[in-house]
Amino acid sequence: MKIVPDTSVIVDGRVTSKVEQSSDRVEIIVHEAVISELEAQANMGKEMGMSGLEEIKTLRKLHEKKKIKLVFRGERPSYHQVKLAGSGEIDAMVRNLALEEKAILLTSDIVQAEIALAKGVEVEYLPPESKEEVKWISDYFEDDVMSVHLRVGTRPRAKRGTPGDLRIEFIDDHISHESELRQVAHEIIERTKRASDGFIEQDSGGATVVQLRDMRIVIARPPFSDGFEITSARPVARVPLEEYHLADHIKDRVTEKKRGVMLAGAPGAGKSTLAQSVAEYLLKQDYVVKTMEKPRDLQVPDDITQYTDLDGSLENTADVLLLVRPDYTVFDEVRKTPDFKVFADMRLAGVGMIGVTHANRGIDALQRLIGRVELGMVPQVVDTIVFVEAGEIAKVYDITFTVKVPAGMKEQDLARPVIQVKDFESSKTEYEVYSYGEQVVVMPVKDASETDEEPLWELAARNVEDDISRYVKGRVECSVDSSDSITVYIQDHQIPVLLGSGGKRIKQIEADLGVHIDVRSLDEKRDTSSFQSIDAHLEGDKIVLFVGPWAYKDSVDIYVDKEYITTATVGSDGTIKVRKNTQAGRDLADAVRENKGINIG
Known about the structure:
alpha/beta; Rossmann fold; 5 domains; 7-stranded antiparallel beta sheet
């Protein structure tokens, strides 16, 4: 019996299983074009190419054991023909070889099988097999295991628990070797090719992404990674929308009208689980629901069609979805600029959108959209943000648009379009987003119970410091005690200067500033425990003080025996240089000569 296999059955390993089941001696005729295609895939780092070459090696071993006869026929294809393999060029060469050899064409490609039959070629079609387990990977998955991590030179590990309560632990004492992981990867590719619910989402540059039922498997190998690694993840929880906090509000919101909703949270927080719950709820409410995913790993009912990128572009997918006319589309994951633009385009076209994006805070999801969508269109694109943390809904924001004076501004002529981000439960505005000059400002808004006194007090303290510095020398520090009382700290010997004869000067300053001023010594405020002793020496016309490179650009106070001398900035070499012809320089020079302690604080 002569068999001519095409690339599809060699990649999924079914040639070996076929000949091992046969009681007759089988001659396997492999076209050189198949070898060229596998070689090209392997050179590009594709796991399919590596799996196919492993199958050829297995067939060679069977040939050497006299169990089969393995021969290679045909001419090696040109570079142009290999590049056109996806268009059927290699398949045509394999069909012609089967016809010439009067052999059976073995394939799991339905298109190849139909064309071969039409051309009079004897065909054995091996349909995809379903519901097969992934050897060695699925064995590690117990009920509470969310992901399995296999890496060359290490023990297998698993992440157990639920969102918000996850832990990593070793699940096997055996150290993984590269040959074993390659065998596991080969098995994964084979099972995925055969399974009706398996997809190879990406295979290039040393990385292969596979979706097999509810498992997303990533195979990484050099040079993309520094070692062979297989990571498999799956959802550990399916939570009905009814069990979430604020579930009723979200139900009312998405069914009231088609909305733009962004589900945000850190990796592993439970965003996808919530997205699945929302999709299932919308389906039960008789909405037509579709998904856009790359890879397709959401676990949704069969009534919801899951789309991935079309010809490498999610924009093409969006074009098809607009023809399908879904009521809602779940977009998982929205990360890059093209993703946000596709999300916005579909939303503005009238499709309800549920987006999933990574963010550490709810407001971060909105900030990721700003700059990618015109500011005035943001509330039309996203009107609801749901922040997920530890598997729970931690915050829901309502995004609205108005024209007003931004919080913190007083002049009416500063009114402008403002995006208000309101807490859904309390209806309080927590953030305002608006244009200020050429910048977009995302400004937190204080509660009504809070006041704006603190920033004003800081400004008042700086103004008082500047004013006091006109009368005294050395360091001046101010602290605001209340709206009409300020404490001023100056050096001891400068206190009489500031007070003036009979306290007349300080009274005049208080009258000018409209506040009561309490004058105190800097020693009362200074924390001498934080002083650091430094070395100093005379060098030409300067005193050089060594602080340390770590303090580069820091502004430090200099003291001699705990008496304030001056404030200076540390240079790039970690030193401060003070000229001797200044008062501070003379004081420091005397301290060096008299071997007094020089400190910074």
